[in-house]
Amino acid sequence: MKTANFLKMMMLFLAIGITSCSTNSTDDGTSGGNGSGGSSGVTLEASKSRVYDNTIVSFTVRDSNGAIATSSAVITVDGTPITGTTTLLTGVGTKAVQATLGTETSNTVNIDVITPSYTTKGLIEDYTGAGCGWCPRVSQGILDVHAASNGENVYAVAIHNPVFGPDPMTFAQRSVLENHFGINGYPSAVLNRDQEWNAASNHNMNVQQALSMLNSTAQVGLAIDSNVSGSTVNATIKVGFDLDQSGLKLVAFLLENGIVYPQTNYTNNWGGVSPITNFEHNDVLRTSFTDLFGDAIPADQQVGGTEYTATLSATSSGVNTTDWDIIAFVVDASGNVVNVQKAAVGTNKDFD
């Protein structure tokens, strides 16, 4: 009788052990861009996990020993075999990619195919002064850009220097920017912190050169929400990412508009009058919320499909504190502008 009971107990323990082992595996074999392999040990990796429509993606297949075996594998996208190790992904949606090596099937890699979310915008940094006689050439150029098709997506920042005489709009840190960008004369203007804006004549600027900043596809966008408390402006700035990025920084400036102050004028603009006694100065740089060349965006927050949020504040004692703007822009690892946003203080400007 004891022997029979012992045998029953042994069979019960054996059954429990088998059941425990059979419930340990929960891997469904799916992954993002770089999977851990299917149940066979064959692993499929993709060069990208999130792309724009009509983007080429490459794949790598490894056998169960980790050796590259891509040339021997059959790779399928949504069940359709591709030729070679790369393919052009078309059509918005999630693409399921697998590889077969002999009789073994890899993990599934899911790739999101999207369309661009953000409007591309450009930046003109205008190095100017109220006493600079040729500077109205750039002022007129900015107006000409804004009057052109899509020109409203090009924003300006006026950085004043008193070298030509007293200028109440002088930006105290102007020399830092001037030295960095090699500003040796006035007027000077820089497009997207990447190139000098060329003059078309003594009186006009090359408008098409400025508009060409809008020709690229921006992979990031910005949103600005702000309020005023006394002389302090508080801003919440969001950076949205279509695709994975790296090395990006955020720059944000406080601008003042509607300052009426005489402007020396050697051009034939504004009727050729000098000085222009009632000249209205706009987009005047008063202070910066960030480092002039940008605050680093954490690397782990530059992921496609996500947003980064910065909470900033700045204080300014400008002349016309009821007409302020915030301009925010993202620069890449080379310092070049990748996209810009502008909003009046006290408003909420969403991604566009």
Mean pLDDT: 91
CATH architecture assignment of the largest domain: Sandwich
Question: How much of the residues is beta strand, in percent?
Answer: 35-45%
User: What is the H level of CATH, i.e. the homologous superfamily of the largest domain?
Assistant: Immunoglobulins
Low-confidence stretches: 1-30
* Global geometry: elongated
**Distance N terminus to C terminus?**
82 Å
Helix and strand string, N-terminal first? HEEEEEEEEEEEHEHEEHEEEEEEEEEEE
Rounded to an integer in angstroms, the radius of gyration calculated over CA atoms is 30 Å
CATH fold group of the largest domain: Immunoglobulin-like
Extended strand count: 25
Please give the count of helices: 4
Count of the separate structural domains? 2
- Can you identify the CATH class of the largest domain? Mainly Beta
What about the largest sheet? 7 strands, mixed
Structure description:
The protein is mostly beta strands and 352 residues long. It folds into two domains: 30-114, Immunoglobulin-like; 122-349, Immunoglobulins (Immunoglobulin-like, Sandwich), CATH 2.60.40.10. The chain has four helices and 25 strands. It has helices at residues 2-22, 136-147, 174-181, 207-211, and strands spanning 30-31, 43-46, 50-52, 55-62, 74-77, 80-81, 86-89, 93-101, 104-105, 108-114, 122-128, 154-160, 188-191, 195-196, 220-229, 232-241, 249-256, 259-260, 280-281, 284-288, 295-296, 307-315, 324-331, 337-344, 348-349. Strands 1, 3, 5, 6, 8, 9 and 10 form a seven-stranded mixed beta sheet that branches. Strands 17, 20, 21, 23 and 24 form a five-stranded antiparallel beta sheet that branches. Strand 23 and strand 24 (337-344) form a beta hairpin. The radius of gyration is 30 Å and the shape is elongated. The N and C termini lie far apart (82 Å). Mean pLDDT is 91; it is low at 1-30. Residues 1-25 form the signal peptide. Keywords: Signal. It holds the Pfam family Omp28. This is Omp28-related outer membrane protein. It comes from Nonlabens arenilitoris.
